[in-house]
């Protein structure tokens, strides 16, 4: 089987602290939080990163952003940051598309 950590988390084969789930999207708290609130939103179907988004699979990305808005609202986040790292130089460590949602503290710009 294709060996992908986030595919296994989305399938429930590896435990996670879930914040949201539907047919196509899964959201869970980051195991190493970088802010008081830090969760990840992923498509259940494997996409390697933003660099692999195409017209054929882009619908789930729009849905992910609707999920981000809903979960952030439900958690009471009025201000937050959404980040996706693409490739080694940007610090991507898990090669399954994921959007970090970070909130609950002051953020700096530009990001490091
Ligand atoms: P990135 O480095 O942008 O690819 O983000 C991967 C994120 O996944 C990091 O913030 C990790 O802390 C997080 N992570 C890795 N393994 C797990 C896990 N088993 N459960 C929750 N988050 C994880
Ligand atoms: Zn995957």
How would you classify the helix and strand content by structural class? alpha+beta
Please tell me what the overall shape is: globular
Number of strands: 5
**What order do the SSEs take from the amino end to the carboxyl end, as H and E?**
HEEEHEE
- Uncertain segments are none
Q: Specify the helix fraction band.
A: 10-25%
Overall mean pLDDT = 97
Termini gap: 36 Å
Strand order of the largest sheet: 1-2-3-5-4
Any chance you could write out the topology, listing elements then pairs?
Layout: H1 5-10, E1 18-21, E2 25-29, E3 37-43, H2 59-74, E4 80-83, E5 99-103
Antiparallel strand pairs: 1-2, 2-3, 3-5, 4-5
Bound molecules: adenosine monophosphate and zinc ion.
Structure description:
This protein has 112 residues and is an alpha+beta fold. The protein is built from two helices and five strands. It has helices spanning 5-10, 59-74; strands spanning 18-21, 25-29, 37-43, 80-83, 99-103. It has a five-stranded antiparallel sheet, covered by helices on one side. The protein is globular. The model has no long low-confidence stretch (mean pLDDT 97). The structure holds adenosine monophosphate (AMP) and zinc ion (ZN). Zinc ion is lined by residues 4, 6-7, 46, 96.
């Amino acid at each position: 089987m294709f060996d992908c950590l986030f595919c296994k988390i989305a399938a429930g084969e590896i435990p996670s602290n879930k914040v949201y789930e539907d047919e196509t999207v899964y959201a869970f708290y980051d195991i190493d939080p970088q802010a008081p609130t830090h969760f990840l939103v992923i498509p259940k179907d494997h996409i390697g990163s933003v660099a692999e988004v195409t017209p054929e699979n882009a619908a789930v990305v729009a849905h992910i952003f609707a999920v981000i808005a809903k979960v952030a609202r439900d958690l009471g986040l009025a201000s937050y940051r959404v980040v996706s790292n693409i490739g080694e130089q940007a610090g991507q460590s898990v090669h399954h598309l994921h959007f970090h949602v970070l909130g609950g503290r002051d953020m700096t710009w530009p990001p490091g």
